Amino acid sequence: MYFGSDNQTGASSQVLAMLTQANSGYTHGYGDDQWTNKAVEALKTLFECDLEAYFVATGTAANSLALSCMVEPWESILCHDSAHIILDESTAPELFTGGARMRSISQGEGKISPKHLQDYLQTIGTDYPHNVRAAALSITQASESGLVYTPEQVSVLSRMAKDNGLSVHMDGARFANAVASQQCTPAELSWKAGVDVLCLGATKCGALCAEVVIFFNKELADTFTYRRKRGGHLLSKGRLFGAQMVGWLKDDHWLDLAQHANTQATQLAKQIATFDCLQLVWPVESNELFVIMPKGLAEHLQAAGAEFYDWYVDTLPPNITIAEDEIFARLVTSFVTQDVQREDFCDLIRNYFSATKA
Amino acid sequence: MYFGSDNQTGASSQVLAMLTQANSGYTHGYGDDQWTNKAVEALKTLFECDLEAYFVATGTAANSLALSCMVEPWESILCHDSAHIILDESTAPELFTGGARMRSISQGEGKISPKHLQDYLQTIGTDYPHNVRAAALSITQASESGLVYTPEQVSVLSRMAKDNGLSVHMDGARFANAVASQQCTPAELSWKAGVDVLCLGATKCGALCAEVVIFFNKELADTFTYRRKRGGHLLSKGRLFGAQMVGWLKDDHWLDLAQHANTQATQLAKQIATFDCLQLVWPVESNELFVIMPKGLAEHLQAAGAEFYDWYVDTLPPNITIAEDEIFARLVTSFVTQDVQREDFCDLIRNYFSATKA
Amino acid sequence: MYFGSDNQTGASSQVLAMLTQANSGYTHGYGDDQWTNKAVEALKTLFECDLEAYFVATGTAANSLALSCMVEPWESILCHDSAHIILDESTAPELFTGGARMRSISQGEGKISPKHLQDYLQTIGTDYPHNVRAAALSITQASESGLVYTPEQVSVLSRMAKDNGLSVHMDGARFANAVASQQCTPAELSWKAGVDVLCLGATKCGALCAEVVIFFNKELADTFTYRRKRGGHLLSKGRLFGAQMVGWLKDDHWLDLAQHANTQATQLAKQIATFDCLQLVWPVESNELFVIMPKGLAEHLQAAGAEFYDWYVDTLPPNITIAEDEIFARLVTSFVTQDVQREDFCDLIRNYFSATKA
Amino acid sequence: MYFGSDNQTGASSQVLAMLTQANSGYTHGYGDDQWTNKAVEALKTLFECDLEAYFVATGTAANSLALSCMVEPWESILCHDSAHIILDESTAPELFTGGARMRSISQGEGKISPKHLQDYLQTIGTDYPHNVRAAALSITQASESGLVYTPEQVSVLSRMAKDNGLSVHMDGARFANAVASQQCTPAELSWKAGVDVLCLGATKCGALCAEVVIFFNKELADTFTYRRKRGGHLLSKGRLFGAQMVGWLKDDHWLDLAQHANTQATQLAKQIATFDCLQLVWPVESNELFVIMPKGLAEHLQAAGAEFYDWYVDTLPPNITIAEDEIFARLVTSFVTQDVQREDFCDLIRNYFSATKA
Fold this sequence. Notes:
The structure is a homotetramer. Chain A contains 13 helices and eleven strands. The first copy, chain A, is globular and about 65 Å long. By secondary structure, chain A is an alpha/beta fold. In chain A, strand 8 (279-280) and strand 9 (288-294) form a beta hairpin.
């Protein structure tokens, strides 16, 4: 019953096998090797376009380095109020951008809406250099509330951003889950919808540590290799990333893993919906569930070994309130989640309510 | 009819005279001179306490350097949504703090309310080092909407801040106007109300360029001289600041200047209130007026040589809306504003309405 | 004949086996897992003391983050003129320290001598905040010229540093090779010799990517976790590092690997010394050889598939000059270097000279 | 007998008079005023070319902001070992450049020689992004040893710099003294000799605080206004700078002031040369003298009220040594130095030697 996070697994066996295979033999260092090259080619095929792709070990590095190529230090980055980059990555964006401003423009809706963006862009001061120019919009796909932007929704935001001189970043830590959810192509959900730079995360969905910054807008990539090296993010044994990515992409493995996680989440959501005292806060569109439940139940579950996290109550939509004896929990499924885990979890819920009713 | 800004004047004659007097003769450089020493002593007397005081040339430098002594690069600074430090000082706070996060916690009320602060502190994540710790609260006195925090209001915010581990910064670019408005002592409006560091601005109210960072909490000052030098803000001819400050403080000159500006604002507000088509947005508590007026009138006034600025519409309180044919304007009085300027301004308004009615 | 770099191998089989073993099962993220804990315990045992240890993926990250805990942004870091941190890590130290100064104090001797340090400390200005205070000394072990500091040599430098208020950093990218060379304990070559912070590298000597910042002076570690997260260097799947380190340290595996590489270097040096036209620049004390050779020979070797790099001629000692038709090359052995590689290499040399003489 | 520094005076009477005149009346803020405009026009006339000019309050700000427009954070700035920017301006260059590297390339000769530059450029690594690319050369005019680069010398260095992709910065804190010394035009000593950006200092030579960053290479100025604002260096009452500069440039006033200081230095040098026990270290080419003298004499002079500073002994040329009972002193003349000061100073020396001989 491990619903804590999708980063609490190891690598998938296919990814690990490729890593093991790549371990032998001599290669040049710093990404100048056949595994890295093969991985970049696989990404070009996957996204059906030319692109520049650079590997790093963490999502925080990927996002911050990507954003540092998109804004000047006296400009700002717009994002949702609960975006990972503003909530969970310390002040990494400020470090790597040389001190650009982070600015949340959306609250309480789980995704950035065109209205959020429009309202902000209409009221922002433009008396430069006094005011801070908005230069990048960051969209999280799937969002921190487990919601997925459709290609059309991404397009609308991207167009609005570009009309105002902003470039578009996508934090794709769960991009695989989003693609699996939308049943569209990776291209449709990224550059065809106006995304300039995508941080594609494999770690949460089958890799051990493999994140890749993909520049569809190649002009933005000019300084990336300098920034990556300077940030200590250029690994000497580049095959580590290349091999994982090759294994992850091979035969749609990445999509199978994501689909598995999504399906587990959907099924768990259905099971949870059968209990009156548990409230699903958002529709389940990827591999995360957000649930309001009685505190007593939460303690009961955790005592029995179930893992999940309390979540930020300020991310709740305005129409939903939480009582003093309730908690707001996030449950995450992954590529290793098994049916039995869900069943055990629901058994525990049933037991709890039987006991408390009795 | 110069209501553009209180920084569009020169120095008061008393300040200029002292500067001229200080120009002669030899002194040591970098603030090691009798004028600087005299100014610091005068500040101690004024604030009735021991303190550390450091001069810089701009309010942006004062605020950013002060804040850099109060937060780590992985912490955040809380302020009102229209605070000068977040709206009009580029990303200077990020530069000088090494990339700390700026975070607005209040919108639409002209001042930070205890509820704003409490709400934010209750929902902020505390899973360090992932989340960003709030480490400083910045209060602008008088606020960017021309409102003044009473000593009691400052105290309530300070107490709440300190109970949560935040230190308290006051942007006192118009501190003189606030003191004049409150008829309290400078001490009561600063350290006695819990302020750790005050950036006291003389420039807007009679000096040519003189801002002073005052540490009531002297422990926070440990690294200031390094930061000031490194920021290029240590002037070689320190007498420039010392002399201005000595002249500004002498015989309550600063308070007379501020009182003059405030009185002009109050009187202008009264005159404006007589016109039905002009709406004062906030009560006038210092030397700024915020007015909604017909666009046609604004053009008429500016064509006749009146100066004032369009202001940020997102700083309007939620209950006030602005029509398409209206503008939101800020008018600022200063120590040189004359009665005749107000009268000429009101004559122009009258003329306009006579003409349009006819 | 792969003498390009010791980072052009994969992981040793023991390290890879442990990584594979650790891949299964559920753990908490971000280093809160049993593998990381076990690795830290193993380091305490190895170094015979309490310590704080933090894993990162690259040597550049390790060094820069370590140094950022040791100096203020207005202070400086002293190092050898050819130190990796000043020559090969871009401006990462400046990034992570918030802009501290890098300062080389030694040229042309392959190691920092006490005289270098003393000379610098005696002439440096101390008129703060104008001058830049020296706050840390960085020693590379083994040095970039393949030389090893004895425990006594480290002690002398450390004592001099501390007498002048500097703390001591050791870049231990090849610490294993140095220990193997000195036949002393890791403790004797680090904290017992006055080292405050050691960046211990496993990557070059058997791991895939595993570097650990070890604080013997635990007070310096206060802010490390914030800095690592903020630098994007906190991996979610911490077992990656933990497992590698456990495998690397188990049964003195690390020392065997290092000893193998050192022995290969020593033997290659002996072979090279038999050729008149090749000149060994430094005594071989670890796993690197620095050789002056005819350009024609170098081209011949590389055409035949031998790999090695041209090296920085300004690192040559003052008494050694290089002719126009010569090159200065670095050859590195590793834990996978085989006897046959050396023999093939020497055969090529012999062939070349036979051919040219003929 | 004030030979401490040329920043220990006030403003010249002509500069102060212009400042007083500019104090009256209303102007726009932030440099959008007639005084600033007039000053920029005067600079264009003086330098016989189009240019961009921006005022700041300190030489440290001018230099650091200028350099920040010339290098990326992963590049380096080359300068003389005793350059003010590397020795006396804390780590301001690192702050404003976002962490670029400072690198001294010359020691012991008082000026950068073409050989220094050539040697460095030949040996520097070019394996990017690992190595740090040299991107700017900074020349101090007059140098920190009081020496002046001739137009031809500047040209040679500039050409070499540009051939290697570096742009050329001139720290002109004493540019006026250098022009007076060379009897050439300001244009000949700056852009005609290849200087891209000149930081022209008026403060040391007659102003109260007025430094101006002059971009002859206007493309480099693109981001300057953002950087200045963000650094807290955009003064609201811009007339302060404009008026000083107008007064300083009017009727060759600046050159008269510089000539006066230079002449005083030359005469003092002649007087000092008459004493056997005092040794002039460098030829006097501007307004600074560097003298080795007996410690006893130094104490005698200072006890009698003479002011001068001990200087960095590591700036001594290699052929000059200093005995234990000697000190190395810097004496600076200024636009207010009077003959009587020199005479009193020499009388004191005579008295001292009479007394010690007796």
